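ok trying again, last paste got cut off:
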Amino acid sequence: MKNRFLMYVPVVLSCFVQFSLAQNARVEAMGGIGAIDDISHVLYHPAGINDFPDQVSGTLGSYSDTAGERIEYFGPFIAIKSLGDYFNVGVIANTIEESGSSILYGGFYSTARSFLLEESDEDLPESFPMIPHLLLGFQPAESFSIGIEAFSEIAQFRKKIDTDTIYYTTKKGIYHLGGRASALIAFGPLWLCPIATFGIPYVKGEVTDTATISYSSEEALLLSVGAELGVEVSEANLVAGFFYEKENYTFKKDTIVTPQFESSSISAYLSFSTTFANDIFLAAEYDFSIWSNSEIDTNTTDGIDFKDSYMENTIHVGAEKRIAMDRVLDAVIPRAGVAYTISNYKEEYTNSGGTNYTIIRDYPIDAQDVEISAGFGVRRGLFGLDLYVNIGNWNGTFTGPEAAAVTLSIGEE
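nice, full thing came through this time. structure:
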């Protein structure tokens, strides 16, 4: 039996980070609204595994990057198996974002890769190779459940030259180990969902030639905490959420220390949904997020500091209508959505050594960024197929939309 209070996990978090990679075709077709009951919730809330036992889901999509090149990808794959009345286990795969990680949303991977490239001949992967995440869920009561996700992200490079005149070895790697936990607690029509993520990203390397050079990281940490609060009254639902995330790290080559890097983000959202008039589902959501990054160099006389921030406000509206069928298909579900975004970027550069000066740039970008999407779903027994297209950004009559995705799901609705 499904718990209604599990419906509203923040799919919007992925939309904040990367618009081009669709996590789920149904969610994207409705404008990226998080207030949708869908298995993709498990990507962000491990406790959601208890709401989708014995289900499998996979997404395939494509999009056009900023250079106009068409990129195809196999998106998130989720598989869940029930182990009796109380336990569920599962795996998540193919969730790497353009940040190079499925968990880290700051610049750790790209910065670490640049730091290690000096001796690695560009052979370090551009992102972490995907290692499936493991999930474990426990639901002792209808009103309470918990879930744990464990992850390990590893990218390595090895090289060895051994001749009569040359002996050279290099061993370098980027690593990230950690976990995520969430709980779902119901109090009648109210429910609360606390969530926390903890990770230790780090680099480790050694180059041996005439001497040995070591590479390492210091003070590297990922911490994310947040919660959602929801209330369900009749056919209407109201949900509010707040999340805070922080990454910080410093790299070291022998005794040379890089600037201290830090990334943080704050996200908040409010959503409303209702079902009316013979299975028409309507949802609306407001999202606010702000990211900030800083690079502080205390190891030089120049004392160069760089800070930037990006703020985004988005309104989403989406709807779908379930149409029952009595022959080949059980149901056909047309849907559509729109997202309107206003964003702002600010950067500050300070040189406190020699000549003291500060440069501040503050300006709006994408002030009228409207994303129009549409799609449909079909159901037949245990099988479901959902299609999403970004109809608001169509490249041409024959080249198609800038983004499209399809999600196949197996399991009871």
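cool. Helices lie at 12-17, 25-29, 108-116. The first strand starts at residue 55 and ends at 64.
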